[in-house]
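Model it.
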Amino acid sequence: MKPEEYVRMLAEAPRNRWIALSEDESRIVAVGDTMEEATLKAEERGVSDPILALTPNEWNPVVMLES
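Modeled.
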């Protein structure tokens, strides 16, 4: 997945919710109000080790530079 696609996927995710990403981080497999809810939904969809993130109310652009 290209970085632009990854950023777009996260930007389009529901705000202020827990999201569960597939193990390879290529797709959002579940969304929940709590981390536990997102985890359970991901497991129900066959993703046993999801990557979890809490989305912010508002995305702010940040530039990261390598040193």
